Amino acid sequence: MSIDLHCHSTISDGALTPEQVVRLAHANGCTMLALTDHDHTAGLAEANAQAQQCGINFINGVEISVSWRGRTIHIVGLNIATDDLLLQNLLAQLRAGRLQRLRAISDKLAKKGISGAYEGSIALATHAEMVTRTHIADYLINNGHVRKKADAFRKFLGDGKSCSVRHQWAELSETVNAIHHAGGLAIIAHPIRYDLSATARRNLFSDFKDCGGDAIEVHSGRTNLNDRLNYALLAQHYGFLASCGSDFHREGDYGGGQLGKCPELPPTCKPVWNLFR
After folding, report:
1. What's the burial of 8, exposed, middle or buried (CB within 10 Å: 0-12/13-18/19+)?
2. Hey, which residues does 241 pair with through a beta bridge?
């Protein structure tokens, strides 16, 4: 299927510029693409201009960091108006919080004898306010502290690990409200990746439904057929639309799929793109 509604560029923690993302998606046969950088929409105009040249149906998107019952989850907003002030104010607050978290993580790393993480991670980001744990992981790799990104998260940065920092992101209800205020649809990103019990997953989907949430990603990254069938059933049970995305960040990334290419959704799904204006 040549639809990809979740990917990233250098505006957040991706390796390619927005223009390069669109070009690669086009080369891979993509016909509908959404750029969904973390907590930022600065790359959408550039990506849209390139998409028009390539003949790709481009969808404005963003991936928003949310704190839910003590956990961090991500909500994708699709088909949003980028000039909506309520949404942009929320995103600005989240970006400011990223720098606060980076300082706290860097202080923990320094206590383990790893210095310079704050300045070094910022140097790796296109925008200082968009530093993510991925940039910190890259700093650790570049300076020989770990061999690969997965090691950085397993040893230092993952939730509950020695240098992780619990951070208060946006509330679920305010996030869904901001996306809707901007004329968009709210989607739970990669629900399969959250370490949730069956009860916690039901609570998440119920809370999201109560907030007016619209859809879940039935496919994300490298899910298999069984995963897609299970989440298609969940979408049907809760009355959610279905979305799909590669969650592409860079070539060869351990968590993402091939940019611009997603498997067909199970036939019971009601695709989210049917509601795009």
Report:
1. buried
2. 215
Average pLDDT, rounded, for the chain = 95
Question: Is the pTM above the cut of 0.85?
Answer: yes
The domains located in the chain, with CATH, are 3-90+168-275 (3.20.20.140), 96-157 (1.10.150.650)
Q: Over the stretch 32-53, which tens digit does the pLDDT of each residue have?
A: 999 999 999 999 999 999 999 9
Region of residue 273 (phi > 0: left; psi between -120 and 50: alpha; otherwise: beta): alpha
Which pairing describes strands 71-78 and 57-68: parallel, antiparallel, or unpaired? antiparallel
Neighbours of 210 (CB within 10 A): 11
The three-class DSSP label of residue 239 is: coil
Name the nearest CA neighbour of 20 among 252, 260, 180. Answer: 260
